[in-house]
Backbone:
């Protein structure tokens, strides 16, 4: 599904290039659950943003399904991204001015989904994740865990094939974190959504089938795990 | 999608009330000003347009060259109209009038004074006054016909049918009402309450019909559509110059569409007129709207850090830049629309006030298709301009950077905002300077030495009866003990009615073709008007004092007389002796140099009584005595009077109006700038709240904190001053060029207005920052 080849990214600091990512080669197949780990500043977020097409590398190629991403024009790339990728952030990043319902609905607006269809989809999700009662509240009226739940629902609403999560539990306590991780696992197993998450916690990383360890912008090691039995 | 934009826009407006109110009031004031100005402009542009054929109507005017000084005049020979119609097929109709005068209309016991025009029969063939009763076409066929306006007819006859009623005019002749026309619109160059035909069998008209030299009337013509006016101008000049004194005058047609706005002539060339103010205020309207838009841009982008996150999230959720642009534009459109609705309300509320201020009858017709079109344009343009920068700026945010949380606008991000603030400051300096200068100029001219004393001087129109009894009236007035001198003049002191070639004297250069103003006056001219005598004496009440004249200083200088007193002047078929030289008396434009003038002693008929009150006499008290005396000796006329100083002040109507308008709109524009500045400081301070708290903990005093915050704005004001001073100087210098009698621009004007802007800025910044500076740092630091 995802194939990164010779991805490098650098910034010019004081005339000298400083590498943030260096010659990254990764392959992720559909249905996988991958965790990315590494010390602070090792380039995890940058890598995730590149996979998520929010950021461009300085060098390298990126194959998404059978599309060469960097050969596409901006418009098509956005199209590809809109249809296939959902994002979850450590800081939730809900729109403060919108209610829970409207936050969840927003990605559908950008995909020109019809109003009636939107309604059905959002209600369905609210039901599924048990947050119907909260749909008219604003983000500031929710707890951190609830906000992240809304963030996840929002990321899933458009039925993405790939879910990218940057420290999704970073701002939550361990119990809330565990709930979110269980949810990820469920989504991955039941719906076949490919998940790439960045995390600092070993325990959370273990939910993944594979752990990619970054150090100073390089892939230091990849630890494979056998598929868990359902 | 659009619904979602509206929703979020609405919530943003609601959530940030202070921000929204600042933005909305700025835009509302801006739009209100713009609408008021445009209403005024529209009214000015619509003058005389109510005549369906306005494009084909012209006034015949003439440039007369006297020794190189070209005088543009509306007075043309009386027989010209007839001749034009007879000779040129392009001329559909031609007519004349006598500029009008006040007449007394009497019906039964009702006596009223109204403005009347004596006109030739074809008047209504050229102009199309709306007829209420009767038919205008034949209404002036008989010399005893009179046309009245509706309100005049109502004053005379009440609700009775005016047609066929006989009214007595000026106590000597009877006229029959032949038609009633609607009241002349306020935006008509020609104004009257009654139209009377010239009487073709009267001696005066008979004589005038062949007189190609003396001109007392103006001529209007209606052309066939598509006539070549330039060619016709030449033909008219040839025709008119072939009669009378065979001069080389240049006749030309001045189109009706230009009467109101292009009425000024200099050296025989049209130099515009009111149009420059129409343009000026259109520009001011645009500037005010622009300032309001700049406010919106500044405040919206200042707030942008708060919205950066929203932009970032939307982008990660799949929004394209286009969609974000649309979102932000729809927000500014909503602001623009709400502001528009508010300002329509404001215009309705303020219009009566505005009307009384500018002495007009403007009204807003919201169902007028033109208004609707303009309104939509106003809303869209304002929305687009105000929204452009915020939309482009906000939608350009990089989501990765923004969401990383390390997004900082940085130094460069605030540069456009600073540019806009500098622009606002510059405009403020310009506006303040202009307001001060306009005021200075008006005061300067009002304070000009007029050469006489217009205060406590009363002018009373004369009549046949009053002239007969002039001597008795004078004596009784003096006997009241309230009056120090009385004279009579052929024209008001505040105007010149008669320009004439200079008299002949011994030693006059051969081809000296001098033109000067002439007026006739009774004895005590100098004493009554308070004219300073430079040489010689006033007209005296002695039997020997006949055939004498006064000259003014300018006349002596232009005639190059060395020892004028006692000189003989041949004027017409009479000889006059120069007995006195007065200082230059400002009679016409207070902005122009005084023209050469002669005053001839005339002891019989005159148009006005001038009454000089003693110093310290209360005018009201004196007037009741004066009225009694005039009622006694002039019983057929209602007593009427005016104060000469008030007459004189009429000359400042335009400048006073311009002064008032600049004050008003400059004030409002500056207010909008202040609003914006206030909002901007509030944001700056909000952003620096934590920094201020930290500095305070570290021991900064409130004064140091205030300075820290205001420093940024100080630089901007200084920069604005540097930019705007040359521009302002250039604009004001050009404006003053239009006045021959004018103030000079001094450095203090700029120093004053810059200081004003600086002071205003500091007050606003300090008021806003005091809260932050006084706040307990513990609170501001804990909130992080
Ligand atoms: N604009 C930039 N210019 C220069 N260096 C940058 C820039 N943006 C990021 N970096 C550097 O790139 C490196 C990788 O950043 P990144 O956010 O990917 O790290 P991370 O692994 O996600 O760290 P963390 O665990 O703290 O979130 C960091 O060392 C950072 O200093
Ligand atoms: Mg990171």
Residues:
């Amino acid at each position: 599904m995802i194939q990164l080849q010779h991805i490098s990214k650098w910034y010019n600091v004081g005339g000298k290039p400083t590498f943030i990512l260096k010659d990254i080669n990764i392959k992720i197949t559909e249905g996988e659950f991958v965790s990315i780990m590494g010390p602070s500043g090792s380039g995890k977020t940058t890598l995730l943003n590149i996979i998520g097409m929010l950021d461009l590398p300085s060098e390298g190629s990126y194959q998404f399904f059978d599309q060469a991403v960097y050969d596409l024009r901006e418009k098509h790339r956005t199209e590809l991204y809109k249809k296939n990728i959902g994002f979850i952030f450590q800081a939730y990043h809900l729109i403060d001015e919108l209610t829970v319902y409207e936050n969840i609905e927003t990605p559908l607006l950008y995909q020109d989904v019809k109003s009636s269809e939107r309604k059905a989809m959002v209600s369905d999700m609210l039901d599924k994740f048990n947050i119907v009662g909260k749909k008219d509240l604003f983000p500031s009226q929710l707890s951190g865990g609830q906000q992240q739940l809304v963030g996840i629902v929002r990321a899933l609403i458009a039925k993405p094939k790939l879910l990218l999560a940057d420290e999704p539990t970073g701002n939550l306590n361990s119990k809330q974190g565990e709930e979110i991780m269980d949810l990820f696992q469920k989504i991955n197993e039941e719906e076949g959504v490919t998940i790439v998450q960045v995390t600092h916690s070993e325990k959370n990383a273990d939910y993944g089938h594979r752990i990619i360890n970054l150090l100073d912008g390089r892939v230091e090691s990849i630890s494979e795990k056998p598929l868990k039995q359902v | 999608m659009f619904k979602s934009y509206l929703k979020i826009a609405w919530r943003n407006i609601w959530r940030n009330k202070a921000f929204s109110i600042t933005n909305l009031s700025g835009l509302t004031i801006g739009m209100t000003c713009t609408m008021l100005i445009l209403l005024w402009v529209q009214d000015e542009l619509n003058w005389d347009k109510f005549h369906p054929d306005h494009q084909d109507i012209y006034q015949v005017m003439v440039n007369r060259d006297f020794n190189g000084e070209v005088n543009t005049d509306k007075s043309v020979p009386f027989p010209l109209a007839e001749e034009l119609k007879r000779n040129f097929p392009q001329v559909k109709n031609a007519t004349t009038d006598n500029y009008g005068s006040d007449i007394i209309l009497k019906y039964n016991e009702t006596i009223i004074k109204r403005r009347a025009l004596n006109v030739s029969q074809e008047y209504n063939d050229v102009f199309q006054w709306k007829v209420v009763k009767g038919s205008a076409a034949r209404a002036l066929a008989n010399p005893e016909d009179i046309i009245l306006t509706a309100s005049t007819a109502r004053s005379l006859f009440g609700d009775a049918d005016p047609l066929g009623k006989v009214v007595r005019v000026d106590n000597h002749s009877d006229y029959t009402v032949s038609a009633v026309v609607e009241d002349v619109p306020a935006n008509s160059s020609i104004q009257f309450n009654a139209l009377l035909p010239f009487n073709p069998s009267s001696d005066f008209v008979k004589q005038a019909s062949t007189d190609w030299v003396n001109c007392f009337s103006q001529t209007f013509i209606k052309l066939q559509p598509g006539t070549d006016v330039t060619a016709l101008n030449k033909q008219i000049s040839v025709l008119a110059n072939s009669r009378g004194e065979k001069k080389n005058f240049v006749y030309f047609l001045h189109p009706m569409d230009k009467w109101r706005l292009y009425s000024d002539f200099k050296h025989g060339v049209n130099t515009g007129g009111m149009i420059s103010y129409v343009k000026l205020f259109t520009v001011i309207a645009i500037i005010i709207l622009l300032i309001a838009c700049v406010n919106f841009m500044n405040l919206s982008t200042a707030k942008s850090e708060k919205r950066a996150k929203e932009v970032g999230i939307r982008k990660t959720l799949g929004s394209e830049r286009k969609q974000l642009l649309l979102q932000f534009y729809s927000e500014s459109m909503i602001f623009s629309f709400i502001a528009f609705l508010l300002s329509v309300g404001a215009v309705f509320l303020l219009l009566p006030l505005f009307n009384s201020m500018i002495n007009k009858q403007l009204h807003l017709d919201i169902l007028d298709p033109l208004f609707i079109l303009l309104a939509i344009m106003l809303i869209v343009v304002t929305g687009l301009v105000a929204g452009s920068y915020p939309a482009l700026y906000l939608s350009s945010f990089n989501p990765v950077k923004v969401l990383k949380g390390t997004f900082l606008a940085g130094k460069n991000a605030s540069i456009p905002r600073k540019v806009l603030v500098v622009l606002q400051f510059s405009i403020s300096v310009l506006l303040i300077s202009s307001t001060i200068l306009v005021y200075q100029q008006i005061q300067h001219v009002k304070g000009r030495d007029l050469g006489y004393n217009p205060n406590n001087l009363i002018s009373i129109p004369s009549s046949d009866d009053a002239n007969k009894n002039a001597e008795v009236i004078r004596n009784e007035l003096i006997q009241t003990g309230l009056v120090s001198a009385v004279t009579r003049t052929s024209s008001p002191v505040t105007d010149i009615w008669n320009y004439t070639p200079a008299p002949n004297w011994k030693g006059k250069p051969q081809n000296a073709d001098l033109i000067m103003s002439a007026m006739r006056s009774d004895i005590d001219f100098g004493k009554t008007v308070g004219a300073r005598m430079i040489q010689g004496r006033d007209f005296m009440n002695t039997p020997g004092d006949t055939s004498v004249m006064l000259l003014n200083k300018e006349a002596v200088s232009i005639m190059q007389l060395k020892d004028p007193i006692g000189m003989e002047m041949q004027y017409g078929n009479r000889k006059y002796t120069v007995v006195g030289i007065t200082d230059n008396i400002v009679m016409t434009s207070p902005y122009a140099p005084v023209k050469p003038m002669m005053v001839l002693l005339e002891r019989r008929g005159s148009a006005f009584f001038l009454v000089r009150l003693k110093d310290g006499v209360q005018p009201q008290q004196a007037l009741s005595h004066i009225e009694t005396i005039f009622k006694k000796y002039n019983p057929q006329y209602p007593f009427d009077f005016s104060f000469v100083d008030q007459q004189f002040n009429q000359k400042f109507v335009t400048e006073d109006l311009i002064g008032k308008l600049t004050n008003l709109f400059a004030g409002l524009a500056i207010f909008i700038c202040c609003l914006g500045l206030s909002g901007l400081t509030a944001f700056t301070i909000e952003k620096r709240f934590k920094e201020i708290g930290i500095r305070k903990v570290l021991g900064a005093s409130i004064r140091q904190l205030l300075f820290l915050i205001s420093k940024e704005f100080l630089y901007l004001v200084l920069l604005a001053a540097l930019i705007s001073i040359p521009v302002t100087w250039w604009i004001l210098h050009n404006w003053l060029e239009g006045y021959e009698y004018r103030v000079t621009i001094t450095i203090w004007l700029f120093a004053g207005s810059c200081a004003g802007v600086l002071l205003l800025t500091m007050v606003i910044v300090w008021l806003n920052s005091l809260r932050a500076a006084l706040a307990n740092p513990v609170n501001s630091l804990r909130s992080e």
The longest strand of chain B covers residues 57-66. The longest helix of chain B spans residues 321-358.
